[in-house]
Design brief:
The chain is about 25% helix and about 25% strand. The protein is of the alpha+beta class and about 140 residues long.
Length: about 140
């Protein structure tokens, strides 16, 4: 991977610190996410929080995004860092997380993936979800105000 920008490296370090806070007793796969918002200096982190009912589980990406919206209202995500405790290939965001992210990221938003030893790849959001369902997909009468 090309040299990592300082802001991405800083977000990666925040995600790496948060990784230990993940609650993953069922999958044993800890995941952390750090979001960099366009109008904020700090990174917003989230971790996966698993639940015995499985459906009650929240992924790290949605955890970070919900935290950002809870703190700041409408947010504009500059880039996303997702890391896991898995020693194999990088783990991309799941479909549900991508659907939720599409509400707050541009099609060209960089998503950096890696693990506890470093970032291994950078992709654009549109590579993960090329035909995202968005507000533009809704009929005119259902468009947000």
């Amino acid at each position: 991977m090309k040299p990592i920008p300082a802001a991405v490296e800083k977000a990666y370090e925040k995600a790496k610190q948060a990784l230990a806070n993940a609650h993953a007793p069922y999958s044993n796969l800890q995941v952390a996410c750090a979001l960099k918002l366009r109008d904020r200096d700090q990174e917003i982190v989230g971790v996966n929080v698993e639940n015995a009912s499985y459906g009650g589980t929240i992924c790290a990406e949605r955890s970070a995004l919900v935290s950002a919206v809870s703190q700041f209202g409408a947010v504009n995500v500059e880039f996303v860092v997702v890391i896991s405790s898995f020693q194999g290939p990088s783990i991309p965001p799941c479909g549900l997380c991508l659907q939720v992210l599409q509400e707050f990221v541009s099609r060209d938003c960089p998503i950096y993936l890696g693990g506890s030893t470093g970032l291994t790849e950078k992709r654009l959001f549109k590579e993960f979800l090329p035909l995202a369902f968005s507000a533009e997909s809704l009929p005119d009468e259902a468009q947000p105000n």
